[in-house]
Amino acid sequence: MNQLEGIGTLDRERLSAVLRGSTGSVTVEQAAQALNATRTDTAKMLSRWCKKGWLARVKRGLYVPVPLESRSADVSLEDPWAIAEKLYSPCYIGGWSAAEYWDLTEQIFRTTIVITEQKPRNRNPTLRGSQYKLKTIGKEKVFGLKTVWRGQVKVQVSDPTRTILDMLSDPKLGGGIRSVEDMLKNYLRSEMSNLNLLVEYARRLGNGAVLKRLGFLLERNDVSEKTIIDKCLSGLTKGKAKLDTSLKSNRLITRWKLWVPGSWKTEGM
User: Fold this and answer.
1) Of 15, 66, 84, 242, which one has the greatest count of Cβ atoms within 10 A?
2) 44 plus 149 within the same structural domain
3) Per-residue pLDDT reduced to its tens digit, 153-166
């Protein structure tokens, strides 16, 4: 834990210039531009200010300012979304994090879901107390996003329909299929519901399991959307999928080519 220490007049002026040009976090490149200094000299200054407790290191080359009221540099991230944009761009906030943003769930998740085009080694990093879960996708599969402002930082978040799509594609992003089913029901009851768009997104994503899971869940919840259910049926791929790959599934719903746990067996299907 770095205790706050005094800094000289020149350092104070330099730090102020860096913070004025920042958007909640500071990179070596941003600071070098603000100071008109070399990257090497700037990195040394940032390291020195970090040791004195005026900045907190998030990751190599990325810092956040320490609030003046703080007694030490042991601070948490004010906005994990903004930091994700800095570290993992091109990326977007998705899964349960986006579901929380769109009020599709009342559950509180401590981990931020980030879907990125990068291929980071650590898929579950913890940065200054903020936990992340990272998933990599190809550039061609990035669509259905909205831009939101987090302070001075523009962040991409999946729109409500893309949020549901991602969780149907990978139920782990929604905390498991039971949680995903609850969010789907909230989506269907909301003004944001657009099942035609959801089917269109599913076809564009090219994940055959999505339509299987969607059609099954719609019928399971007695949703009177015959046209949509027929679209799901007509778009089924040949292979069989699991309702949730993390659950033991020993019953096959032949209509949907979907393996489900015994407790999910639906009469007549």
Assistant:
1) 84
2) no
3) 789 999 999 999 99
